[in-house]
Amino acid sequence: MSTVFIALQANEETRPIIEAIEIDNPLAVVNRQPAMVKIDAPNRLVIRKETIEEQIGREFDLQELHINLITLGGNVTEDDDSLTLSWAE
Amino acid sequence: MDMKVAKKKLGLKEKYRLMTRDLGWEPTYRAKDEVFPYVNYEGIKVHDWDKWEDPFRLTMDSYWKYQAEKERKFYAIIDAHAQNNGHLNITDARYLSALKIFLQAISPGEYAAHKGFARVGREFPGVGTQVACQMQAIDEIRHAQTQIHALSNYNKYYDGFHAFADARDRIWYTSVARSFFDDAMSAGPFEFMIAIGFSFEYVLTNLLFVPFMSGAAYNGDMATVTFGFSAQSDEARHMTLGLECIKFMLEQDPDNLPIVQGWLDKWFWRGFRVLGLVSTMMDYMLPKRVMSWREAWEIYGVENGGALFKDLARYGVRPPKGWDDAEKAIDHMSHQFMLGLYQWSFGTSFHSWIPSDEDMDWLSAKYPTTFDKYYRPRWDHIRKLAVAGTPFKNFGLAKLCQTCQLPVVFTEPDDATMSCHRETEYKGEKYHFCSDGCQHIFDNEPEKYVQAWLPMPSLFQELNGDIGAWMNWVGLRDGEDNGDYSGSRDQRNFDQWRGMATSNT
């Protein structure tokens, strides 16, 4: 098992995104550090457009993530509906 | 009434195809080898450039949109910083030393990376690769500019910021970062991708931009947090590009594996040595600390780097050769380097200091196996000398490693009481190294590294060893920019201005 992670700036725009990630990834661990939030998960973490849209009540383009993204670890797979981070099992 | 029909939005994959792959063409009146002359000599075999995938599928139109948004956020905070006495809101002016090192050594590296990506974007034949390199070239120049712009606010009030460009070219500790980038930029396009995309982005920037920037937030420096996170938001894309490049080479041909492994070995160690500067910034230069260098290494080196190499094992890649030596150095490097900076502080365009009792207690808690045993006694001794009015100053010039250009200040991996030093003789000349890693790198490409510009020999070649002339030449004002923090103009000004800012007298 390896840890994948994503770190986002801690601000109003990312609060609902982090909530969405927690909903979609029950194994994710959220670490709050000064000015940033780092989310770790075992092997795989998925970020879903639909869940984020439910949280923020508007349409969301997954590429908007780039604005508040700090860093990530894992292989990235992205399509219109989701962004997945994973390490080979 | 006409019904308004919403235009069908292109899906991500379709848009990426149209706006990257579809922009390429086959040359007809010149052979492809003539158009892309540098892509073969490193020995990397590529059979199908279309197999290159950008996982983010970012296209230029979206790129401009999101980058503009990042810039607006950045300048909103920079303006607020300048309008609200941001230069007085930091925890302590000692913190500025970390920013000075950053500006002198790292920001010019961003500019060098910009030039490098502009070049390799031209040299790679694949369209997906060209577009990704073009974006990264623009990112890197943005980083250099936003960093210089953010820190220019401190230059109005504090010493040591004014001559960063001369410092970058001429002063001794900055040549560590400079030689890293010069080495990368004078390599072929594939090696450049490993050097910057893998070593700098994947190994270095997480450690530099993430815990250190979080530390900047902790120290009240919103300007630096903002350029740091704004830059790092691009780095996530760069790391992905670097990882993609490694996977692409390994998937294209099995013959590429030994070449790639050799570069991983080399550039891991090159990157690790540049991190010597960062370890000291984290452990000694942040008045309020989020985590120690050791703790940051556990997260971003051991855990994340380890995960990466476990993942790449499916291609036959093993962890880099210097990995074990790096692990052995973690609990020592920041202390050894700070002791070096302190004793040579006549020649640094930033201040250093003797850690306080409170700082030393923190260091022994974070480094229980090494600090009290090896480093506290040395700091205690140095403090005794300072109190007696005979401070420990070294006006000799440090012996530099021919590869990484750091002073040879480190110890043997398995014996922290023994200074580590290696030597190679090449064509009748003796060359010195700080470690096995740096010696191996030299031995593999001696003709490259015998040409290295080293700041200490240059002091004699160009200025006959005249230290005063050297200070003028590197833009260092003696008694203002250098020396101990205690008693410095930065300390006096900060204390006085902060007093004025919080009272009416």
UniProtKB/TrEMBL annotation, chain A:
Any one GO MF annotation of this record: monooxygenase activity
Keyword Translocase: no
Pfam hit, one: MmoB_DmpM
Record key words, sorted: Monooxygenase, Oxidoreductase
InterPro entries attached to this UniProt entry: MOase_MmoB_DmpM (IPR003454), mOase_MmoB_DmpM_sf (IPR036889)
Domain of life of the native organism: Bacteria
Gene3D superfamilies named in the record: Monooxygenase component MmoB/DmpM
Keyword match Oxidoreductase: yes
Similarity comment: family membership: Belongs to the TmoD/XamoD family.
This protein's name: Monooxygenase
Species, as recorded: Aromatoleum toluolicum
TrEMBL record, chain B:
TM spans (from-to): none
Organism: Aromatoleum toluolicum
UniProt name for this protein: YHS domain-containing protein
Key words of the record: Monooxygenase, Oxidoreductase
Boundaries of every YHS domain copy: 414-453
One Pfam family here: YHS
